Amino acid sequence: MRLVLRSLPPRLALIVIESAAFVALTIWAGKVYLGDVISRRVSIENLGLASQLDQGNSDYYLKLGRLYEYSLTDVNPTKAIEDLTRAAQLNPMDAQPWLDLGAAEEVTGRIDDASISLRRANYLAPTQPGFQWAIANFFLLHGDTKEAMSHFRVVLAGTGQYNEIIFNTAWKAIGNGKEILASLIPDNADTEVRYMDYLIHKGQLADAQGVWDRFVTEHQSFDPRLAAYFMDVLMGTGHPDQAYKVWTDLESHHLVLDPAEPGNLLSNGDFESDLGNFGFTWRFYATQGVYIGLDTTVFRSSGHSTVISFTGSSGNLFYEGLQHWVKVTPGTAYQARAYLKTEDITTDSGPRLWVHDPVKPTVFSKFSDQLVGTNAGWTLLTVDFTPKTSYVTVAITRMPSQKLDNVISGKVWVDDVSVVRAGRPDQP
């Protein structure tokens, strides 16, 4: 429906109203624009003027409150609280003014008020690490460790930026590994592994085991190499049973395979799978002047062997770069076997098979014969041994030569490695 004003007075009145509205809108827009321009040069005077020009803009009050709270020359906690309160009132669904208000109230000793403001910020930003970090530190400072840990937990779930600081803080405040794991560490694979590594570096291996036990219970699929460092430390510190337990956890999750032939305690002895390079499978170590890898052109059985190439640039080398941890039964007689083939191995000390204790090699150590020069056919090397402990390391090694001409070069291929009970016939 169209309204038609035929008489002059109503038409004049409408024009006056429209003009007044336009002028008011223009003035308001001008004040808002002017306030924005002025506020770009941050100072108490400029922000104060901007807040008067645009009294509904919470951002001006927020910035003013921060200046009064943190300024080196114009600090005024009372005025900071006044402006931050106004900012929170104008924009009550924004967590930032509540967080700043809580900080200002804490400075002035209004702890209860600060707690209320920070809980409001927590309600508005329950998953934001930056907010949760500040809130957690407030409660920790005022003795509420349980409340602080719940907020630190959110921080850990959202970012790895504060991991080390939070872990250290938790150990100083609580000092109990199980309690920290339950209250602080989120169900997050990356954080759990980082916390486990942190505990390992602190020497808290029992607590690290607790983290691992929870980890494998909660996660069914993950990169098994996440456990590599833990197994190395456990074995190196004389805890082989725990290291093997971690390995069997990986097996139960079908994250590692055991392609060993029946009766062979050593996995992947024919090298038909990749060299895993961690845990209880083949491990190889980078050594200057030595190349190691799978070879599909030379092999004794199936389609692969491992080749170790000595370039002659590493001097009189002690080499133990290809090895395998093996679980055995103490007091049982075994034979370790490996087929080797060499090409132009120099010096009087060549590659051989070595079986020894993985923690203390000086306690138990046995070698096979060595190979030098060129052996065109595959040569079987054996070591008969009866272990006193439950674990041995089987390695391809080269010991330093005692002669003047001692720089090793040449190649050796390794295939069909096994550890079997003594008296078991060889496999074709």
Fraction of residues in helices?
40-55%
Query: Approximately what portion of the residues adopt beta-strand conformation?
Result: 15-25%
Structural category is alpha+beta
Order of helices and strands: HHHHHHHHHHHHHHEEEEEEEEEE
Radius of gyration: 36 Å
Write down how many β-strands occur, each being a DSSP E stretch of 2 or more residues.
10
What's the end-to-end separation, in Å?
101 Å
Strand order of the largest sheet: 1-4-9-6-7
- The poorly predicted ranges are 18-40
Q: Give the averaged pLDDT, no decimals.
A: 85
Largest sheet: 5 strands, antiparallel
Helices, strands, pairings?
Elements: H1 8-39, H2 44-53, H3 58-70, H4 77-90, H5 95-107, H6 111-124, H7 129-141, H8 145-158, H9 163-173, H10 177-183, H11 189-202, H12 205-218, H13 228-236, H14 240-252, E1 283-284, E2 290-295, E3 305-311, E4 319-327, E5 334-345, E6 352-356, E7 365-370, E8 373-385, E9 391-398, E10 409-421
Antiparallel strand pairs: 1-4, 2-3, 3-10, 4-9, 5-8, 5-10, 6-7, 6-9
Helix pairs in contact: 1-2, 2-3, 3-4, 3-5, 4-5, 5-6, 5-7, 6-7, 7-8, 8-9, 11-12, 13-14
Task: Give an account of the 3D structure.
- The chain has 428 residues and is α+β, with helices and mostly antiparallel strands.
- A hairpin with an 8-residue loop joins strand 6 (352-356) and strand 7 (365-370).
- It contains 14 helices and 10 strands.
- It is elongated.
- Helix 3 packs parallel to helix 5, helix 5 (95-107) packs antiparallel against helix 6 (111-124) and helix 8 runs antiparallel to helix 9 (163-173).
